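Please review this one.

:::
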Amino acid sequence: MTLRYALASLLVFGASPALAAGRIPYGGELRLAHTGPSPQGDPTLADTPVEATLLGLQSRPICRLGAGGESHLAVARELSRPMAQTVRITLPSLGLANTLTRAWTRFTGAEAPSPYRALLFPVNGEARQLSPRGTALELPLAFPWPDLERSLCHPALALPVTTSAPSLGPFASTGKGLLEARLGYPEGRPYLDRILLTPTDERGLTRMWTARQVHVALGALPETGALAGAALHATYLAYSPRRVPTDFRQAFESAIDRDDLTRLFVRAPAVSMPHLLPPALLTQAPRPRPGAPSSGGMRPVTLLYDAGIEDQRAVAERIQVKLHERGYKVALEPQPRAILRSRWAKGDFDLMLHSLLLPPIPGPALAVVLDAAGRRDLLGVELPLIGAVEDTAARDTRARERALALAPSVPLLPLYAQGLGMRVAPGMEGLVMDAQGLPLLEGAYLLPETPASPGGQR
């Protein structure tokens, strides 16, 4: 079912009386304010919920996951399995096929490695030697992996926004902070004519919302209520077993209360995460037991964190204080995300706060987490066992069981998971969330004479 048909169903069964007998109105300018900088063109680095939402206006992966986890074609024209162990992607043009191939081989190779490369691990050669055949790209599998098609819908696998491919999403940039609807978008022209984007900080976002200057506010707004979507932006503390003492995990577990850390120092909708997978993917499991406090003299370590994520600064400072009580002298070092990922790939760190936008599927999510933990050796052992389970529910259960079993042996300590903080003005309709926890603005529309208003929230 396409987005247009879904919206038509909503009109039939649950639309407002004013529109029940009429059409959804086309046109209008949506004013959207957001925290943080505008995302760059690299989808693998634009992986906070706000950045992924904004980048998704101009770039999409080959498919998207609906709220129920069902796959819908987006950039691709066809996604099929001509053979049990081969997935075929048919794209609109040869140039697009070549662009996608270059993007995927880049972040699976040594040039700009990313933990999201684990999404393509089941492909022969880890997708490093892909070669399109005309407009088609075939992915031969090294082992059974029924979740590959849904994995390909992850935002990190979207095509980069470049001068040669300026927009593959529902909107295209026509000026600084201005996006215009793309008439040729494969899923149908967006209802809105344009979106006006305004970057600001949290105080500015709250001020603009209160003054009724925007229709949509994205970011860590106070008292936003329930999660707008799935909380899949997971933050971990990675540590190097070569550089920190063997009792570091015990010292951390005895010092840090994840519930307090999340409640007091993390903004946006957030939940504490005691396991390798977020509560949205793994619930009702025993929590890890605190270890015995370590003893001895002060041991110096450096904690790297993402300079572009304000929450990480507050969390890093809290960890610095609590680990000091356990005999660690922690120096804090903020880094740009690109440099942070580069040092992660080289293993050049003592401690590192690592945030990832996990796919909403337990098996692929576990693959990304294991890669982020520096345990790529486990991918070839664990993923074939998970992929061999044909039933979807049983396969998800298997992935959750392995996440619990592997947690004590990987140098990665889960902290919290975040959703997207978002408020929507009354009179804006048609906005839905996908399975990734991100809003689909191409289906949104403004009722006639809708002012920006702080009354609604999601």
In short: The radius of gyration is 22 Å. The first strand starts at residue 29 and ends at 35.
